[in-house]
């Protein structure tokens, strides 16, 4: 269940998968009418880069915090939307053209255009340069009509959005200042599991709050998108910490706080940070051009499990199995096919589909990339110029046939829908058959088995029997479900 952390004028980013509650860590406060005025004063700042590089591991964190805390800020974004008129508002209480009717209309308040609704989203951020550039979360400033930054010494500044990237939930904002500002740097090395970490932020509007913990895990996928690669920490992180930095004991930023796991809405010691490596790539593009461009090859893919690897003849479960190819996309034009396994990018081994997606996205469009491809038992190399990421009816009762080897009841696809001229459709799945736990669903279209096209239930039977005769232990089925394509491996005796 998704729980909103306050009442906002915009939808919260969904962060819940498989029944878990993942909360965006910001505060949203809603009020009717105008908000209080802000004050703008000069900044008396600690100039120069703030860090503690070269220091011995401390017995406490006081010296480190004293050095880096001035670079951490609170971020507030004021949003506005026109509320929908209630039933009572549909009829004006004043006669058209009367004094009170004219008075309200001159301020834009009419029965079909009621008074504006204002809200505040509150989060955190940090300076990355002395000239006022601040990293924060996209969901903190998204839709903001006016943005304010509060520095560690309590001074308030108006800020403008330089650029934002919803895919990684990062944003870059800037304030104007008369003097050099204190700033921190992003870490060059990945943090080690077990390292001390120190988040600093603006939880519940309580600016300059420091907590401590360790790195719990790296490479976490929390189901937020194709580029998930979060650092998990156990330091207390709460509402309002969004966009704030997490430091190592050298005073370097190892990540940006973005979400927490919580059954209750408060911290239970499971928080997620965007790694510094991703922050660097995104922020540099936002600074240079106000947006992020990502490489694209035009395929759908899935990871290679040990069972799929055995069915394909791979020595180990690695790489990304191509489930669908856009014939007009970069990969399709260079001959990459459905059923290929991409095993490397520019000679670097690919672990799985998620890693491949992140790797391609991190390469600039128009770049020539060499892919290692495994096809029909052989390795080959394919060079692709990357593109750029841009943002069944009339069925009749078919004649079905049960595939005893797999526990599937199948029918020819053309007997179900004229839109599908090839393949067979799954009509039923036996709970005791080999395909029971494969992930196939009733209504899936099976397009090929072990790389060979199938057009009738008998085709599937023949390929399965042939595989068994050759002492194969698994077969690979290519399927399509709606707009999604994929593969499943099924063990056979």
Structural class: mainly beta
DSSP summary, beta strand count: 30
Q: How does the major sheet shape up?
A: 7 strands, antiparallel
Tally of separate domains: 3
Share in helix: 10-25%
Overall mean pLDDT stands at 78
Question: Which architecture of the largest domain per CATH?
Answer: Beta Barrel
Query: What are the low-pLDDT stretches, counting only 5+ consecutive residues below 50?
Result: 1-21, 29-47, 82-92, 391-397
Reading off the top of the CATH hierarchy, the class of the largest domain is best stated as: Mainly Beta
Distance between the termini: 42 Å
CATH fold type of the largest domain: Thrombin, subunit H
Broad shape? elongated
Strand content: 25-35%
Instruction: Determine the number of helices (DSSP H or I, runs of at least 4 residues).
Output: 8
CA radius of gyration is: 28 Å
Account of the 3D structure:
The protein is mainly beta and 493 residues long. It folds into 3 domains: 1-292, Thrombin, subunit H, CATH 2.40.10; 295-388, PDZ domain (Pdz3 Domain), CATH 2.30.42.10; 400-491, PDZ domain (Pdz3 Domain, Roll), CATH 2.30.42. The protein contains 8 helices and 30 strands. The strands form 5 sheets. Strands 24, 25, 26, 27, 28, 29 and 30 form a 7-stranded antiparallel sheet that branches. β13 (245-247) and β14 form a beta hairpin. The protein is elongated and about 75 Å long. The two termini are 42 Å apart. Mean pLDDT is 78; it is low at 1-21, 29-47, 82-92 and 391-397.
SSE blueprint:
Blueprint: E1 22-24, E2 27-32, H1 62-68, E3 72-82, H2 99-106, E4 116-127, E5 133-136, H3 138-141, E6 146-150, E7 156-165, E8 170-175, E9 196-201, E10 209-210, E11 213-220, E12 230-233, E13 245-247, E14 253-261, E15 271-275, H4 276-289, E16 295-296, E17 299-303, H5 306-312, E18 320-325, H6 330-333, E19 341-345, E20 348-349, H7 353-361, E21 368-375, E22 378-385, E23 387-388, E24 400-403, E25 408-412, E26 424-429, E27 445-449, E28 452-453, H8 457-469, E29 474-481, E30 484-491
